[in-house]
Fold these 2 entries.
Entry 1:
Amino acid sequence: MRTDIVHSGAGELTYEIRNIVSVGEKLQQLGRKTYWENIGDPVAKGEKIPTWMKEIVAELVMEDATYGYSPTRGMLETRQFIAERRNSRGGAQIDANDILFFNGLGDAITKIFGFLRSTARVVVPTPSYTTHSSAEAAHAGDRPVTYILDPENNWYPDLDDLEKRIKYNPAVAGILIINPDNPTGAVYPEAILRGMIELARRYDLFVICDEVYHNIVYNGKKTVPISDIVGEVPAIAMRGISKEMPWPGSRCGWIEVYNGHRDPMFEKYVQSILNSKMVEVCSTTLPQRAYPRVVSHPEYGNYLAERVERYEKYSNIAYEALKDIDGVLVNRTNGAFYMSVAFQEGALTHGQILEIDNSQVRAEIERLVSPANVSLDKRFVYYLLGATGICVVPLSSFATSMQGFRITLLERDEATFRMIFQTIAENIRKYLASA
Ligand SMILES: Cc1ncc(COP(=O)(O)O)c(C=O)c1O
């Protein structure tokens, strides 16, 4: 090419959660039974969609209106429904025009960071859900600017570190909060969230708060939506149906803009996101029409409560299985359905292995771990996959130099779930003892 056609941020776009699948599939072909614990899709892990929910969708499918475009911002009745529910809590007040629908939050994230001036940065957590950190880094063509989630303190944000990142980096214009968090499963207490909002207020920043897991909180933990405490700080909350309903295949999520008119620059920025959606026309119609009917159905509360109860039980099974292993740091998951396990510094080496009976699988794993630059946690993840078939994601692929792995709590069968965590515990011990 006579001109470089590759975007300066292209190198920042990685998504190990799906990359690892190609390795797992190859091992499957070589005869390795595989347990997919890498992707946060409850439906792929066998979540049963209740008949009443399917009936709502089926009725909508029979209506011609479902087949049309929706307005660019999204179906008006649905936005009014969301705004009324939001306003009835108190806190930030919005109307239907403060809501904008996207084709899933993945689409929202791409546009929100994509339309930010390339020199303006949003400080993101480390570890960080990759879609956010990659999109932010790609927009700037540089490494993400990060604040620490502390594994020694329940994976809560380190507010001192956050303030330092803001104070010494004048390019920082916003703070990203993910609560409850992916990949750590942490749920932030109100005091921490208030501390983050206070920093935004003091340094004149805006806030993005991803609340896609807001209704999946357990183990007695409490948190608040950002709308409760945002005060006058310009902010964007992200919500969606992928995890809660769950309907990830519908590609439906939305943003709620708080204090959208208080700051002219923020107002212009939000308008540019709306304009970009207009250029694209609109987002998916069917799930927007279904949403109010599903969440106000008399069975919805019980249905969600049953799932949340299962995640709570499984979070404890997982924690009990891993908490006493020397060399690893684990926290009980309190929200969403992920657990991040961190290896203590120095616990991993390039000489550790797990025994793999199948010689073809062993040869494939040895090939994968042979490059000198394979990170130590990726090496562990490959060996675990080869030796046990359990597919997890290296923690270092979540915008952190910390070594570990992320696993989901989505396996529904309790016996299989227990087996998976016992197998992981045994294999961590074996791996750490092997060299
Ligand atoms: C924190 C967080 N935000 C957003 C998303 C993406 O959701 P969507 O399916 O709406 O694109 C995910 C998916 O795993 C997530 O974990």
Entry 2:
Amino acid sequence: MPKFHHLKIKEVRRETDECVSVAFEVPEALQPEYQFTQGQHLTLKTELDGEEVRRSYSICASPYDGVLRVAIKKLEGGRFSTFANEKLKAGDALDVMTPMGRFFTELDPANEKSYVAFAAGSGITPVLSIMKAVLQREPKSEFTLFYGNRRADTIIFHEEIEGLKNEYMGRLSVHHVLSRELQGSDLFSGRIDGKKLGAFCDRLIDPEEVDEYFLCGPEAMIHDIRDTLAGMGVDKKKIHFELFVAGLNGKTQKKKKAEAQSVAATIRITLDGNSFEFPLTSAEDTILEAAQKVGANLPFACKGGVCCTCRAKLLEGDVEMEANYALEPDELEAGYILTCQSHPKTGRVVVDFDS
Ligand code: FES
């Protein structure tokens, strides 16, 4: 079960004009709970103007770096990201949820793999974690990064990536693609999309030789690259992707809310061994929202169907989910749902967070 602990901030480092990275102090007793895998994220919680605000941010460190650090890019109108970029400092403390997420593949020092990643903007954050972990843990593997940004001065972790190129010369290739700054070649100007991927495959990578692809950026980029790779015959199992987790605020992906066929229902929830029951009175509410109305403290972070923090097993009844960017087909098959996206379709729904 994900859990919050109050952690002190060790360092707030400015990465670009619009982005800071924040490192936390993890007391010895809590270190096992904050062990993370490359590519995972943390949910941060604090009170801003008397209101609780939660946001999820990807970890930018590798598990072998010995530090727990996330990157926070300032978003226009983003309450938490503006606070973090303008006010947060070493010595402050935040509630930090234990790490979550499955944007990774298992590493093995015996592997001789070829990894290719496509990242845009702050989508670099989990990709940097994965890239460092691969280079550190798999001495015979190679990594190629295509990284899209507006201009050179908005490239997050620019120096760190350059440092890695020198440290892992011959095993790490980095190609910057800039949309608002002219580069010497057309190949590296514009946005990363399916067409550009075709050009990269003609000149820089052979899709048949790539073992794993990692994609992180806006939804349109992810879908375009994924579909183009699938069209080239790449096995979908090799394509791993993560939508931007940073800054999700609950309004994201609420596409189907109006169409959701919800019914008035009784909901029974089991969490941490305790069970309780309550009515869902508004068809607009998801199970999570209905539970919050009666004061239940269920785990959640993004409220956008992305982070998987609100996952629970449906033991009885049926639900309709508005969006699902987090559950794998085998989890759906096993009856797992995202409670932040689920509307009851039957008069009684029984949900277990402990399964
Ligand atoms: S809270 Fe993130 S998927 Fe439900």
